[in-house]
UniProtKB/TrEMBL annotation, chain A:
Species of the source: candidate division WOR_3 bacterium SM23_42
Protein name: Anti-sigma regulatory factor
Residues annotated as domain Histidine kinase/HSP90-like ATPase: 56-148
InterPro entries: HATPase_C_sf, HATPase_dom
Leader sequence segment: none
Domain of life: Bacteria
TrEMBL record, chain B:
Xref: InterPro entries: Ser_kin/Pase_Hpr-like_N_sf (IPR028979)
Protein name stated in the entry: Serine kinase
High-level lineage: Bacteria, Bacteria division WOR-3
Alphabetized UniProt keyword annotations: Kinase, Transferase
Keyword Transferase set for record: yes
GO terms, molecular function: kinase activity
Provenance organism: candidate division WOR_3 bacterium SM23_42
SUPFAM superfamilies in the record: HprK N-terminal domain-like (SSF75138)
Length: 154, 114
């Protein structure tokens, strides 16, 4: 599912895209680790990196746990970083409920692995300056996570 | 305090990352919920957990955890060790339960508050 993006006046300074395979728990988290390493290399402030790493990891894990497939794109602009996650999956019926801390539809097996605490989406929101979620049941879910950079490197 | 001192004092077994035991430990966090660790652990923490699957490595790398201690005699899975080795992340194991380990660490001056 692709979300409509509008009003992107800024030029992209840096862009990277990752494929996320649903159900692949062994490699889960690697895209987030790569994003973190890249942001470090281009000299982004460590507090900004910490927030992006948390948001990216939670979003990546949601794709791994619930969707068939997804992509995670990171766009670095002059004054913000935009993380876009689109997945093909079951979608979310009630977004308001999904955003509620503690609510989770994770299986027993996932919970035993320490997932499904119902903290994923709330963690993402908490670490974003702008957070948008759209979903269509039976099609998929899209997240847009924007983190503002203050000054040169945040 | 360095990881080596903790390994010695608590008699931990080192499962991998033996070369990185000179890492500095600044604090500690104990949790088995990965989202909780993502949200609340801090850089340089030693992480006490019962989770042994490979995803703990990604969490530890993203949060710049100094090292993981697996409790109650639980051993890291093969993929966990492989991933941790390639990332240079020390994983230690202990027969003790979390409560005991955290208490001993606190006695050594490792705190959950910073």
């Amino acid at each position: 599912m692709e979300m409509k993006r509008k009003g992107m006046k800024n030029r992209v300074l840096f862009q990277q895209e990752f494929e996320i395979q649903g159900g692949d728990f062994v490699n889960a988290g690697e895209s987030s680790c790569k994003i973190r390493n890249t942001l470090r290399e281009i000299g982004i402030n460590s507090d900004i990196i910490r927030r992006i790493a948390i948001a990216a990891y939670e979003a990546e894990m949601n794709v791994v746990m619930y969707a068939q497939h997804g992509t995670m794109k990171i766009n670095v602009y002059q004054d913000n970083i935009l993380l876009i996650i689109d997945d093909k999956g079951p979608g979310i019926e009630n977004i308001e409920l999904a955003m509620k801390p503690g609510f989770s539809t994770a299986t027993e097996e996932m919970r035993e692995m320490g997932f499904g605490a119902g903290m994923g989406l709330p963690n993402i929101k908490k670490n974003s300056d702008v957070f948008q979620i759209t979903s269509k049941v039976g099609q998929g879910t899209s997240l847009e996570i924007k983190i503002l950079l203050n000054g040169k490197n945040g | 305090m360095k990881l080596t001192e903790i390994v010695k004092s608590l008699n931990l077994q080192v499962a991998c990352g033996e070369q990185q035991l000179d890492k500095e430990v600044c604090g500690g966090y104990s949790s088995d919920l990965l989202s909780d660790v993502m949200a609340n652990s801090k850089k340089g923490d030693v992480w006490i957990t019962l989770q042994v699957h490979p995803n703990v490595v990604a969490v530890a790398m993203l949060k710049e955890i100094a090292g993981i201690v697996m409790i109650n005699g639980r051993m890291p899975e093969k993929e966990t060790i492989e991933k941790a080795e390639s990332e240079g992340l020390p994983i230690m194991t202990s027969d003790s339960p979390a409560f005991e380990l955290v208490g001993r660490l606190y006695e050594m001056g490792i705190s959950g508050k910073r």
